[in-house]
Specification:
Elements lengths: L2 H23 L5 E5 L4 E4 L1 H7 L3 H4 L10 H17 L3 E9 L5 E12 L5 E10 L1 H72 L5 H28 L7 E3 L1 H9 L8 E6 L6 E3 L1 H18 L4 E10 L2 E7 L7 H4 L17 H10 L4 E8 L2 E9 L4
Parallel strand pairs: 7-9
Antiparallel strand pairs: 1-2, 1-5, 3-4, 4-5, 6-8, 9-10, 10-12, 11-12
Helix pairs in contact: 5-6, 7-8, 8-10
Amino acid sequence: MSPQDASSQSISEELNEEFLSAIIDHVAHPIFVKDRDFRFVLLNRAMEGMIGIPRAELLGHTDYDFFPKEQADWFRQKDQEMFTLGKRVEVTEEPLTDKDGRHHVLSTTKVPLRDARGVITHLVGIIHDITPLKRAEEALREVSNVLERRMQERTDELLAAQTELVRRERLAVIGLFAGSLAHQIRNPLGSIKNAAYLVQLASPTVDDDLRRALNIIQDEVGRANQIITDLVDYARVTPAQRRVVPVDLLMEIALTGMDLPSNVTVVTECPALPKVFVDPSQLQRALQKLVKNALQAMSNGGTLTLRAHSEGDAVFFCVSDTGRGIPEDVRHRLFEPLVSGNPGNLGLGLITARALIENQGGALALEKTGHEGTCVMLRLPIASE
């Protein structure tokens, strides 16, 4: 080859390198080349911009000089895999931390570069920065989770509404049944009670067995009448005749006419509070049913507490006892008809009280149940000035 031809070939190679470098620099995706010692020997402008390190600093160095060891170990593992297998290696997702500490997620293709003899001399890496895609996926996942939560909440609300509708329908049936049942049963009960009384009058010297039998009849008639009274009370929740009522009056009427056992201590806590807008007659019925439940739970004595306080636009009225509490197996069903925490109780007192309180625009809930007793909390609307 003549000197002129050699010079022309050298110039051509330089032009080809410059041309190739210009092409690589204009590629939008980051591109790098490493030698078999895993040192950077070439990278384009996109690669330089992504990691924030000038190419002059990168050339001749390895990943360990710039990236966290965990990431550099991963890059080296995949580089070695490509040199060992001698074929393309696809890395679908890998992390990279740039010079400013920003985190990227990359999808990288690593391919072998061979010389004229077919020997692998370099590794060429082509990167797709999929960080925006991953962020979009995360945002989409979050939106999906939010929608899923909202859908579940709506489903739960619909199920709760359906359950409440079924509950109200069942209670309505019981209410209709109660009115008819009261009339049909009270008449024969009255006859039984009168007959037992006449037997006592006609036989003033009855023996002990007959006297006990007559007492049982009287007691059971009274119990049956109480059950009927509970059914009628539940059935006759009429529209409330609401008016402005002081809270201390509610304390008083809750205990009016109640047979308080001598082994039960009554405590009332009623600071100066705003007046409430309720039907006092219906409130008395509701509160006395709660007091009665509390007394039944304290057959061995205890403390009955009536406590009130205001919060926001409502007065909260608590009826609590120190009795045996509500059994675990009935606690979650306590507001169902015919379910009671007191043995022998029909189980209409609590749901009747709740119906009466809701009739005032208020609410009733169990605040505490346990071995140390039960607290039923009423929320009552404050009267507007």
